[in-house]
Design goal:
about 800 residues; alpha/beta; Helix Hairpins; Kinesin; 3 domains; 10-stranded mixed beta sheet; 3-stranded antiparallel beta sheet; 16 helices; 19 strands; rod-shaped; binds adenosine-5'-triphosphate
């Protein structure tokens, strides 16, 4: 008996010695068998022999022993293959084990192969059966056993076949189910692969977004840190500002108290001044009196002196005459003696001469008396003269003393006035600083005077201006239907305010443009309320020039005056109007020709697209920009623009602006000695007036204009409301006007709005609306103004 094949394969074949040829199974079969059995070592060149299979089936642990094999068989050399239940179980176990090792498909194929092999085996067994039947006779002893065994084997084979068939069927079923499963799994795998791909992409995206998010997070954290630092620095600044404000308030209070004490002082000084003035006038009158009396005394003195001198002269003359006459008398007496001796006849002549001598003597004594009298009067006159001289000196000294006192008082008054002015200037400066720090849009309110045709319709003054210390010049009250509405602005100008006074208040702002700030001043108000008058003034009346010409004068004067400090400026002007939501270039050279057709869409072929760069500078494509050197050039351009503007007559205004007018002056300054550069912008805007359609009585083109004006002004108020509420989205792009004004309303420029008010009681409703809108504007924060200045490296003037 051949030992059991350790390899758990279904069959083990060993070579057998050659047997009769009729029982031969061809070599091919064995070769085929070898190939089919996957290269199992089961055939050893059976060229001349036959392979004989002998199955010993041991049932239920019944051990096979050589003795159980029939002697014919036991003694033969034929190889015996044992095919036990353990083998089958081992085979099944192996199958089960292999099940794990091979994939289903391979296993199926193996199984199919196996089945094929089994079939071949069956065929082979049938052949063997035939061989056995042939051998039956020869192997009689073993035949029965063999037959029995064969029958058993057959039975077993049948059972096995059935089993195998059932297994095959099951396997087939399994295979089909596995195939189905495989297909399903394949499709699932495909789906899974796709979803894996998607997931991978998603994961990559997530990773990428994770990276960007982590970067963003880092950035955000850095920003948060920065923001925190900023917040802390802002907090510090805020605290400092609070302290500063408190100190300012204290200072302001101090200034107020100082101001009030200075006012008292001024009043006192005024009183003293008035008293001193009265004294001075009294003293002056006294002085003039004493001067006149002195002059009279001097004159009198002089006349007396001249009289005395003439009397002295006369006296001297008389004395000389007397001496002469005495000498004559002596001569005559000697002559008389001579004559007496010589001629007795000349007695009569002598008597005459005696008479004459007596006469002369009497005259002499009279003159002597007169001289004596005058000499007596002379010391009195001299004393009087001296007395008058003393009193004149005293009066003069007193006068000089008073004069000194007055000078001192006047100096003190001037000092006090200077202090008051300085205090006021400081107060304004601090107020401006606070406003700048707050970043608010500043609002000035101007109420125009009643016009001649309005005076007749006056129903009483609806505006009043509180005069308390705090409210003076800043508050305005509007009385409407027995209700009082109070408003506070940065400045309130009453109807009496002149153009000069208005300009003084904004001149600092204009100066800022020269210092490199963006400045925007615009006038808002109902139609006919005085916007154009405020901005442009009254043409042909130099005293009533508006803010635009005055600002230009100041800028060109400053340009001149700053030349010695090394500053050189270049300036550019542009002017446009927004008419019916269309930009029109007021300095365009082909404007006049195109004006004839009055295109709705501006100058043909021009875009006029508004763009804001990152620095908040505004650029308008195709807009004419003119380099200007002098005020005369700008005035010429202003006249040109004024002639090109869209004006019309409405029920409310004889000369109404039907468009928004925007004047822009760009200033580029370079300091040759310090290499400092500045870029300032001055925007001066005269808005078209709001008006109620019902009141304006507009029709046709006027109606269209009015609707366009009201729409853009309502966009302006939407923007202001959004800014005041600090909303995330501010609708700047809703109109050309708001988009153009974006850097002024939401940026870092210094912005001032004039709200022009008509005092006409019939316009009280519109005035109330304007004032309400203006106080909203006043509350808007637009950020801290930023100065555009840098140090010149090469020619870095921005384009
Ligand atoms: N402060 C003022 N003093 C004297 N007259 C004034 C003053 N303000 C305005 N006026 C006169 O009132 C009239 C209307 O003024 P203006 O044309 O400036 O109004 P407006 O607001 O520009 O009107 P519109 O929006 O219709 O253009 C003009 O005749 C002007 O001279």
């Amino acid at each position: 008996m051949v030992p059991k094949n350790p390899n758990p394969i279904p069959f083990s074949l060993t070579s057998t010695p050659p047997i009769p040829s009729k029982n031969c199974v061809s070599d091919e079969l064995f070769i085929d068998q070898e190939e089919k059995f996957g290269g199992e070592k089961m055939l050893e060149s059976p060229i001349n022999g036959i392979t004989r299979l002998d199955f010993t089936i041991l049932n239920d642990g019944h051990d096979a022993s050589p003795s159980s094999v029939p002697p014919s068989n036991a003694g033969s050399d034929c190889g015996i293959v044992e095919f036990t239940r353990e083998d089958v179980e081992a085979l099944l176990n192996e199958k089960a084990k292999r099940k794990d090792r091979f994939n289903y498909k391979e296993r199926c194929e193996n199984m199919m192969d196996y089945i094929r092999r089994v079939k071949v085996c069956i065929k082979y067994f049938q052949e063997l059966e035939m061989n056995y039947s042939l051998e039956q006779e020869r192997l009689k002893n073993s035949l029965e056993l063999t037959q029995h065994k064969c029958a058993e084997i057959e039975l077993l084979l049948k059972i096995k076949e059935e089993e195998l068939n059932s297994i095959i069927a099951e396997m087939r079923k399994n295979s089909t189910s596995l195939q189905e499963k495989l297909i399903k799994e394949e499709s699932e795998r495909m789906v899974a692969v796709e979803s894996l791909e998607i997931e991978r992409e998603g994961r990559l995206n997530i990773e990428r977004s994770h990276i960007t998010l982590s970067e963003d997070l880092g950035k955000a954290q850095r920003e948060i840190e920065n923001a925190n630092q900023k917040i802390s620095s802002l907090d510090d600044m805020y605290k400092q500002l609070q302290d500063y404000i408190i100190s300012l308030q204290q200072y302001n209070g101090k200034l107020h108290t100082e101001f009030s004490s200075v006012e008292d002082e001024i009043k006192r000084v005024e009183k003293e001044k008035a008293a001193a003035g009265e004294n001075i006038t009294l003293l002056r009158s006294q002085l003039t009196l004493s001067i006149s009396s002195e002059e009279a005394a001097v004159k009198h003195n002089e006349t007396l002196a001249s009289e005395v001198a003439s009397l002295r002269g006369e006296l001297q003359q008389e004395r000389d005459e007397r001496d002469h006459q005495l000498s004559q008398v002596q001569a005559l007496t000697s002559e008389f003696e001579k004559c007496k001796k010589t001629t007795e006849s000349s007695y009569t002549e002598l008597d005459k001469l005696k008479l004459k001598a007596n006469e002369l003597e009497a005259k002499c004594s009279l003159k002597d008396n007169q001289i004596r009298e005058l000499q007596g009067q002379l010391p009195i006159a001299e004393m009087k003269f001296q007395g008058l001289g003393i009193s004149a000196l005293e009066t003069r000294m007193e006068f000089e003393g008073k004069q000194k006192f007055i000078d001192e008082l006047q100096r003190r008054v001037a000092e006090a006035e200077l202090k008051v002015l300085e205090g006021e200037r400081l107060r304004k400066k601090l107020h401006n600083t606070i406003l700048e720090l707050k970043g608010n849009i500043r609002v000035f309110c101007r109420v125009r005077p009643l016009l001649p045709d309005e005076i007749c319709s006056t129903e009483g003054n609806i505006f009043s201006y509180p005069t308390s210390m705090e409210a003076y010049g800043r508050d305005i009250d509007l009385a409407q239907s027995s209700q009082k509405h109070s408003f506070t602005f940065d400045k309130v100008f009453t109807p009496e305010a002149s153009q000069e006074e208005i300009f003084v208040e904004i001149s600092q702002l204009v100066q800022s443009a020269l210092d490199g700030y963006k400045v925007c001043i615009f006038a808002y108000g109902q139609t006919g309320s005085g916007k154009t008058y405020t901005m442009m003034g009254r043409p042909g009346h130099p005293k009533e020039k508006g803010l635009i010409p005055r600002s230009l004068e100041q800028i060109f004067q400053a340009k001149q005056s700053q030349q010695p400090q090394g500053w050189k400026y270049e300036m550019q002007v542009s002017m446009l109007e927004i008419y019916n939501e269309t930009i029109r270039d007021l300095l365009s050279s082909n404007r006049l020709s195109s004006e004839a057709t009055r295109p709705e869409n501006g100058t043909p072929g021009k875009q006029y697209t508004i763009k804001h760069d990152t620095n908040g500078n505004t650029h308008i494509s195709d807009l004419t920009v003119v380099d200007v050197q002098s005020i005369e050039e700008v005035e010429f351009l202003l006249n040109q623009a004024a002639n090109s503007r869209s004006m019309g007559k409405t029920q409310m205004n004889e000369q109404s602006s039907r468009s928004h007018f925007v004047f822009t002056l760009r200033i580029y300054g370079v300091n040759e000695s310090t290499d400092q550069q500045i870029q300032g912008i001055l925007n001066l805007i005269d808005l078209a007036g709001s008006e109620r359609l019902s009141k304006s009585g507009s029709t046709g083109d006027r109606l269209k204009e009015t609707q366009a004006i009201n729409k853009s002004l309502s966009s302006l108020s939407d923007v202001i409301f959004a800014l005041a509420k600090k909303e995330d989205h501010v609708p700047f792009r809703n109109s050309k006007l708001t988009y153009l004004l974006q850097p002024c309303l939401g940026g870092d420029s210094k912005t001032l709005m004039f709200v022009n008010i008509s005092p006409d009681p019939t316009s009280a409703g519109e005035s109330l609306c304007s004032l309400r809108f203006a106080s909203r504007v006043n509350a808007c924060e637009i950020g801290t103004p930023r100065r555009q200045t840098n140090w010149r490296s090469s020619d870095s003037r921005s384009s």
